[in-house]
TrEMBL record:
<dbReference type="Pfam" id="PF00549">
    <property type="entry name" value="Ligase_CoA"/>
</dbReference>
<feature type="domain" description="CoA-binding">
    <location>
        <begin position="43"/>
        <end position="137"/>
    </location>
</feature>
<dbReference type="InterPro" id="IPR003781">
    <property type="entry name" value="CoA-bd"/>
</dbReference>
<dbReference type="Pfam" id="PF02629">
    <property type="entry name" value="CoA_binding"/>
</dbReference>
<protein>
    <recommendedName>
        <fullName>CoA-binding domain-containing protein</fullName>
    </recommendedName>
</protein>
<dbReference type="InterPro" id="IPR005811">
    <property type="entry name" value="SUCC_ACL_C"/>
</dbReference>
<dbReference type="InterPro" id="IPR016102">
    <property type="entry name" value="Succinyl-CoA_synth-like"/>
</dbReference>
<dbReference type="InterPro" id="IPR036291">
    <property type="entry name" value="NAD(P)-bd_dom_sf"/>
</dbReference>
Amino acid sequence: MRVVQPIRYGPRFVVPRQQALRRNFGTTVRLQSYADTLPNLRIGAHTRVMFQGFTGKQATANAKDSIAWGTNIVGGVRPGRTGEHLGLPVLPTVQSAMKELKPDATAIYVAAHQAPGAIEEAIEAEVPLIVAVAEHIPLHDMLRIHSILKTQSKSRLVGPNSPGIISAVGKCRIGFQPLPCFSPGKIGIIAKSGTLSYETVASTTRAGLGQSLCIGVGGDIVPGTDLREALTVLENDSDTEAIALIGEIGGLGELGAAEWIRDYHSRTQTPKPIVGLIAGIHELRGRIMGHAGAFTIAGEPDAKEKIEALVSAGVTMVTHPGQFGEAFKARLGGSTHGVNSPAGRGKLGNQRRQIHTAVCRPQMRTRFLAKPCTQQRRHLTLSEDDCMDLLREAGLNCGHYSGLGNRRFLAIGVDRSTRSPCILAAPTVDDDQIEKMVKRYPFDYRHGPDELAIERVASHLHISLKESAHESLRRLVHRLSDIFYEKEAYLMETEIVERLGEIKVVGARFGFDDAAYRSCGRQTELQKLRNTAVEDASELEAERSGIIYIKLEGNGTIGTLVNGAGLAMNTVDALGGHATNFLDTGGKATSETVKHGFEVILKDPRVRVIFVNIFGGLTLGDMIANGIIMAFKELSPRMPVVVRIRGTNEKEGQKLIEESGLPLYAFDDFEAAKAKAIELSSA
């Protein structure tokens, strides 16, 4: 077997999937699978933590705070360097660090283009727990890493696009969670969203309950640890008496969690109470709502379906993270009834009705990919003509639909449950039927689609028994998968017909992972096909400022400005049909991004009120307040601004707003701020 040198954190580097196949990870045979690494998530005072990228600015600041809090940091790695940093050893490779420092976990603090190499080096060194916090790691790098993780049984990954994992009881932080919010206690937290988890932490701290173990699974398309796996860990955690489950649109993970909870309740005499929240009820179909994984494709449930599944499994649902504290107090101290008892069901029935009042009119389910005029960070969608050109270059038969032959749906995408690519197929293209009829056929990232899967696809699509038709389908699937790999796509949808024993493509819409270009400088030729002339000017302006802005449909009159994608989705949900937009300044909002956010919002003539909802974790409340005041003075908006600031330096921020002498309304309670914004928008 060819020996491959450990990957360093060099710029713009990617390992081909063929090379990933040859890498020999996890030589230990005592354990059987990646699932056997779940116990590695049980961190605490005993956990020895090292850093990769230890001497960098972010890692240094994080390490100082974590050490002061009580985390047992034992040193770190900087490629090619040996010495000391913060009085702790610095070693040149992860292998050497494993031998000398004997860490239980590594925190990876390197840029997105360097992170895949760092993760792979940690897997090769068999570090028990790997925490990757970086955003914008290219999807295909993560698919390759998951193909490696499945071949070993020593290393467990948390992230990427995650705040990390933290034990408030054991004073062990591996990530960038805001420490002032945390207090040792009894509530375990599992979350896709960082800001929503911080709000939940603050709520449970205010309620006097505190936290035990908090697992930030993150908002990536294919996270290293999912909701169901995290639930398994908290079930067996002796410090955890109740569990907060925070999900969002995208994937099937919440349905898997609901299935697990149903089984948990059936086999456990006194199950731990579980309270949940799902963000993205008011998603704009065809758009990525901030997080890389916050989108819905054919066959995936929307937020309402996820809520229904969790409620039916016995989960108490809340509509805002600030409600978690009181919900847990009620579940832990208010009743001796089990969740499966008649009395328990009655309480959940009230919660079901509460959620239903928050869900707006149902939307017709449509195919996922957005039109090319609605680009945003994390994806690039090409026009149908450009997609057809790519297919013709691959030697495929394609053209406009003549009206002859039944159209079928065929796509290459990602199966988030198996963390692998998949074929998606349905014998119809009708939007009313495709959701029920689409099936997934996962395949190994290292090998591509196999013949058995393609035969099953042919059967599901009702392709005729002609050998020429089957051969034509095989050729199409393999060519699509080639483009999927070579161009780093995340979803390639086609409409096909069978005519005269051949498969013809009569419609195509392809989406590509923008992170491959933005983080790693790959796919430059593909980026040249982007036509910004047809895109929304406000969304382009926001993108240039590092802001994710999505203009919503409808007659809303409240412009929203929020830090963090999960909190931004939840804010839009809470406002119902009143919101004009989704706007995420990012988890580290600054005065300048707040000002740019105001500029973008004010270009929408529908806006009558601006609602600023900030939870200060890493973001300081007083800094945000100064940014709001600066923006108001420079831009002179002719409308009221409602500001809700909680978290770090919240009192200082609220005081600055109150004493500004400007028509700004300051709140710390979300419900009061929301009510005021709605009231002012109707005046």
